[in-house]
Sequence to fold (208 residues):
Amino acid sequence: MRRKSIHRLNQWVLAGVGVVLSLGLGYLFFSGNRYSQLIGFFSYMCVACSLVPLPTPPFVIAFGKVFHPGIVAFVGGVGNCLAAYAEYYFIIWLFSKTELQQQVEANRIFQRFTQYFQQATFPCLVFTGFTAIPFEPFRLAAILIRYNVPKYLLAVFVGRFPRYYFIASIGHLFPIPNRYLIVMLIVLFAVPMIGVFIKKRTLGSDVK
Fold:
């Protein structure tokens, strides 16, 4: 019971962190100078694609309206690489203090997955980094197999740069009102929280 309450508290804390960061970046976007806008965007992207996943498309589109898509893609890609670098060593440290890695490596599904994943790790990371396919499981798998760090970071950047360039180009080419981007941000925050709520209600009804 205590673990459930702690887990629930952690979820609310992470959601609060995400909201604060999003509001802070929004404030910089509307009221800051160009230098502070880029610093804020870089800081947000360092956190957004790490252990605290946050929505990025609305901000990438918004900054594409102000900066060239290449600048937005480069800053976002470098920010993601910095997050991936910290995440890499944090997860290794975390797993070294627990039995999680042994449990994961003993899983037959994971063993089969890594047999194929190790044969094409770099292309898989690039492909999932660019597309809408969930990137996190592949990042975690790369860390667990101790994939070469420079190659890992290069794969993250190569996958993310064209993704952010494409999304930023939408804002650069089309006059999308900021109110629509705010609605998109709210929806991207709300959908996962609604999904968690429904899942908890479903599990609670099953137990009854």
Observations:
- The longest helix spans residues 2-31.
- The radius of gyration is 19 Å.
- The chain has one domain: 2-207.
- The chain is about 80% helix and 0% strand.
